[in-house]
Amino acid sequence: MDPTVSDLTDRIRKAAAERKPLRIRGSGSKDFFAHKLEGDVLDVSAYRGVIDYEPSELVLTARAGTPLSEIEQTLAQGGQMLACEPPYFGPNATLGGCVAAGFSGPRRAACGSVRDFVLGTRIVNAQGEDLRFGGQVMKNVAGFDVSRLMAGSFGTLGLILEASLKVLPRPEQEQTLRLKMTAAKAIETMNRWAGQPLPISATCYIEGALHVRLSGSSGTVAASRMGLGGELLETGVDFWSSVREHRATALQGKLWRFSVRSTTPPLPLAGAQTVEWNGSLRWLATDAPDDEIHQTAKQAGGHATLFRGAPGQPIMRLEAGVLALNRRIKAALDPMGMFGPHRLHAEF
After folding, report:
1. Distance between CA atoms of 288 and 91, rounded to whole angstroms?
2. N or C: which end of the chain has fewer CB within 10 A?
3. Dist. CA 228–CA 290, nearest whole Å
């Protein structure tokens, strides 16, 4: 066994024996997303490196501590990419943190989420057992899909040691168009375009303008650009990076994330609103009361998550049945509550 893995496993077993909770950490770039950060830090950043990558197979396997920047550089050499376009939120973001957070970027509506691209994982559970789930091909899952369950768990279900992800070819060309319009018009436009055969890989309404990214062959992008109109944004790469990494002014401060139907009108709340993913993802920078936020989300048929800006406050409010399901999953995979207690839920 790799000495780093042996050390991590020994620490988990010792912590379990002493009933001391652990907080799994790569670079800490996602530490802002938490109700509470409890437990001794279990640093996995030393377990790094690409294990296997064959461009013709469209699969990459790497250790959890591998920097995302290294992963993307490796894929770029093969003309490929992480299609879910995960945000870093820090220069040293790791692959393990990417999977554990489950955050997806602007390309999510067109290509899928982090969870959609996880093929397999190697994890260590609360008993210190080294386990493997899934594999390196798409059709190999039988029974409970633990690998994809790890995506979005924030290290509360087990320690991710390695992950295998499906990757996709980089598009031949990308262009970004900017169209000034109201939020209501932008939402209607996004939904109308979503029903047409257009090479749209991202949409974002922010600060009074709708931005749309076209990705594909040169001919397809050129033809679509002529039909959609708007002005060509020369700084398209920087724009999408600022949205993905939340550097844009409208994404600063106390930030809420709304998941709603794509056709939902602009939310009747004060604050700067940003609309992504063809209308289904809404960001709201506001100091509005929490009750008003959650009530608005519920009336829109969705839910709201406190994404950033208020440590110690509950991140989300789950219906009783959903909360019970989350509790049962936690009990099944981490019965002693070893990993990240109260990170996602105030109740456990």
Report:
1. 31
2. N
3. 39
State CA 190 to chain mean position distance: 22
- Name the token pair of 67: 């920097």
Instruction: Classify 128 in phi/psi space as left (phi over 0), alpha (psi -120 to 50) or beta.
Output: left
Over range 1-15, report the average pLDDT.
95
Sign of CA dihedral 57, 59, 60, 61: negative
What single DSSP character describes residue 45? T
Report strand pairing: 22-25 vs 40-43.
parallel
Name every residue whose Cβ is closer than 8 Å to that of residue 3 and which is 6 or more positions away in sequence.
Answer: none
Instruction: Kindly list the distances between the CA atom of residue 62 and the CA atoms of 65, 95, 165, 299, in Å, as whole numbers in the listed order.
Output: 8, 8, 9, 42
- CA 186 to CA 189: how far, in whole Å? 5
**DSSP per-residue string spanning 60-106:** EEEETTSBHHHHHHHHHHTTEE-TT----SSTT-BHHHHHHH----T
Instruction: Give the burial class of 312: count Cβ atoms within 10 A of its Cβ; 0-12 exposed, 13-18 middle, 19 or more buried.
Output: exposed
Distance CA(258)–CA(65), nearest Å, equals 30
State the pTM of this model: 0.95
Cβ pair 278, 226 in contact under 8 A: no
- Reference 60, options 42, 36, 76; nearest CA is 76
User: 259: closest CA among 113, 119, 151, 148?
Assistant: 113
pLDDT(90) > 80: yes
Q: Residue 201's CB: how many other CB atoms inside 10 A?
A: 22
Task: Give the Cα-Cα-Cα angle 302, 298, 271 (nearest 5 degrees).
Answer: 85
Could you tell me the pLDDT band of residue 215, with boundaries at 50, 70 and 90? very high
Residues with Cβ within 8 Å of residue 24, at least 6 apart in sequence: 42, 44, 96, 100, 155, 159, 160, 339, 340
pLDDT at 310: 82
Report residue 268 as tokens.
């009747």
Give the pLDDT of residue 324: 96
Long-range contacts of 295-299 (CB under 8 A, 24+ apart): 296/267, 296/268, 296/269, 297/258, 297/259, 297/260
